[in-house]
Amino acid sequence: MTAASETRRLLRVGETPRSGPVDADSLERAIEGAVVVETDFPAALDRVTNGDVDGAVVDHRESGFDGIAFLRAVRQDRPSFPVVLVPATDDGNVARRAVEENVTAYVPASGDDTLELVAQKVKQHVGARSSERGRVRMPISDRTTEEEQRLKERAMDEAPVGMTIADATLPDEPLIYVNDAFERITGYSKQETVGVNCRFLQGPDTEIEKTHEIRDALDAGESVSVEMRNYHKDGSEFWNELKITPIRDDEGEITNFVAFQQDVTERKEAELQLERERERLQRLLDRINGLIGDVTEIVVTADSTDEVYARSAERIEADEAISRAWIGEYDPGARVVRTRAGGDGEIDLTADDAGPLAAAIDEQSLVRLDDAPADPVGCRDEETGVVIPLTYRRTTYGVLAVYSRAQPFDEEETTVLQALGRSIGAAVNDLLSKQTVTTDTVIEIGVELHDETPLTRLARALGERAVHENTLIRHDGDLLLLFEVDGETDAVVDAAESIPEVIGVTVLADEDDPMVEVAVEQPSFVGTLSEFGAQITTVEFDANAVELRFGVATEQNGRAIVDELEDSYETVELVAYHESDQPAQTRQGFRAAVEDELTARQLTALQKAYVSGFFEWPRRSDGDQLAASMDVVPSTFYQHLRAAEKKLLTAFFEGDA
């Protein structure tokens, strides 16, 4: 790059500007310019106010670097300085605040293309600077009066901005001097301009209020600066940045007005375009916020997947920019999409004309639709459209197809539509998860995790000194493991406590049939299964593997759980998979209903009493030991246990927990 070549000098501001989706090094390559990094708010602001940089890319985090505050500070001194804001998350409020502070461009950090979009905005709004900037002009040496006068005249003639001087002592203040730049800017020659008032540059669209502002300032003997529409000699319009200053004689009387003119049409049109873009973005935000709020309320309050599909499609279709919308449910086994709201029929994804729909599902990404009459999801006459997968993590439950006759969906709209797709997918996952405890048919799955886990390490440490008898999963996800001890309990306690993930060991019985309870912090598989609404039935383990048995409501959730486990563990072996018909009141449903009625203490007391052999005869543990394991006095333990027993028996005999 030569010394006179042009480049951009960009400021990258945030807590960690060298990492994340818009890291400084990647941004520098993308814009083919220079990027300087600041993490300190005052230092970054000094860079802007001192003119060290041509634009800024600024992070915003609600609990970190406040990009909105930085934007507000910049706007106090540099109202037109280009600022691209990149928020980590956004619920619509951040965007509104950014628009109110006159953000130049707004790019949420919500996808793999964030860096590309930021670079695009930088190239669009941040101008290049010449490396010749910064050259310092040498001072004028001692000269004769005549030489100094000639130098000043030459400097005025060759100045890069238009210069005029008017005689304030003559009627109508005629021009007595114009420089060469004024001729180039306006197209008028010196012969045509000297001797007349400079209002000849005005025309039909010149702002009358700007002319009044100029006249009022000159009448008051004050300087004035305005940007106004003026006209070239050929009649074409341009934006003139005009600055006028009065010149006074030794007595303080105004003798002349010196004016500077600069053609700022390119910058002004860019500002007007930016203002139009801000207004468009504000209208879009108002529209989108209403859409997001309504769909969010739908997915939160709906009682079934049918209701989610129907009400969501109806609300999306009611948007002023959308001509129609429909939602389809994906059946991965049959490889088809069955329309559930706003459409009619079944689409075979293996057909040649179902390519966009299949791509959206397989790639879990938005796909733009084209005008293909044979395509079952294609656009109709004068329509544009997109299809969005309804996903939760790696599971796709369906698709949302949206069409418009106004104009193609822009990046802000597609970002919102993708977020709506994820919201609907999460709602469907939640509703299907709840079905596991209410449905008549449950898919029962068994897997073995052949991997090094806290449970396999615990089994190896205990060896043959203890036999695993039962496993309980607490509300917080931690495991309570009950072991029957063969020998002294002290050795078992020491071995268990040597495992880092063990968070507590309690001796429940220490005489004829010793028993030890070991609490283990939540394994990753518990979170995975609970996230997809699976009901864990058994957890068995030895020194080599962990075997899980669980039930789910749908094949999709079962497949998603296995996929998630395969990501977390080296070897996952499927050992059982079948549907099980349940009675009208499922075992899981009964248990869930009872647990809803029990307090956490009541449930813990009941579980501990059951697994420790308290209800057997002779008892394998007594109330004093169980009370100590719960860190309560025996009377309190029995109070919790009796209350739990009453609620359990009420549910059993009266059918209403």
Architecture overview:
By secondary structure, the protein is an alpha+beta fold. The chain is 39% helix and 26% strand. It is built from 21 helices and 26 strands. α16 (524-531) runs antiparallel to α17 (555-568) and α19 (600-611) crosses α21. It is elongated and about 120 Å long. Mean pLDDT is 83; it is low at 1-5 and 130-142.
Walk me through the topology.
Elements: E1 6-7, E2 9-13, H1 24-31, E3 34-38, H2 41-49, E4 55-60, H3 67-77, E5 83-87, H4 93-100, E6 105-106, H5 114-125, E7 129-130, H6 145-157, E8 162-167, E9 175-178, H7 180-186, H8 190-193, H9 208-219, E10 224-231, E11 237-248, E12 254-263, H10 265-301, H11 305-317, E13 324-331, E14 336-341, E15 346-348, H12 355-363, E16 367-369, E17 384-392, E18 395-404, H13 411-435, E19 441-449, H14 454-462, E20 466-473, E21 479-485, H15 489-497, E22 502-509, E23 515-520, H16 524-531, E24 535-541, E25 546-552, H17 555-568, E26 572-581, H18 587-597, H19 600-611, H20 623-629, H21 634-654
Parallel strand pairs: 2-3, 2-4, 4-5, 5-6
Antiparallel strand pairs: 1-7, 8-9, 8-12, 10-11, 11-12, 13-14, 13-18, 14-15, 16-17, 17-18, 19-25, 19-26, 20-21, 21-23, 22-23, 24-25
